[in-house]
Amino acid sequence: MRVKINQDRLDGYARQDFQKALIESFDTPVSAQQILAYQLDKDINKIFSLVPGINMNMVWFEVIKEAERLYWSGNLLPAARKVSPENPMLLEFARRFRHGPEIAAQQAMEPLFV
């Protein structure tokens, strides 16, 4: 099933799947801050101030919401894959999203590895 994208916006199911993949890959506040700061030049202190306690589910929910609001959500997946390229949930999401030439190349070669 292909993810429905509209100007870097994900549908509700895709947002939920992406959030789960991000939580699996970046499950601490420090790892979330690092990927956003180093890969995307984003400061998420504002988002952390919106989330009571350290709840990574809410942190990533707010990050995705903010990314869509400011039209940089399309950059979040490539950044996450760059830092965590072997994560199976991110890889599956990227396949569904049809993101990046490396995914297309992998899909083209998959029958060779059956």
What is the arithmetic mean of pLDDT?
Answer: 77
Q: Note the main sheet.
A: none
| Order of helix and strand elements from N to C terminus | HHHHHHH
Beta-strand content: under 5%
Radius of gyration equals 14 Å
Q: How many domains, as an integer?
A: 1
Helical stretch count? 7
* Assembly state: single chain
| Ends apart, CA distance between termini | 21 Å
Q: What structural class should be given to the helix and strand makeup?
A: mainly alpha
- Contiguous low-pLDDT stretches (5 residues minimum) are 1-7, 103-114
What's the overall geometry?
Answer: globular
* Number of strand elements: 0
| Percent helix | 55-70%
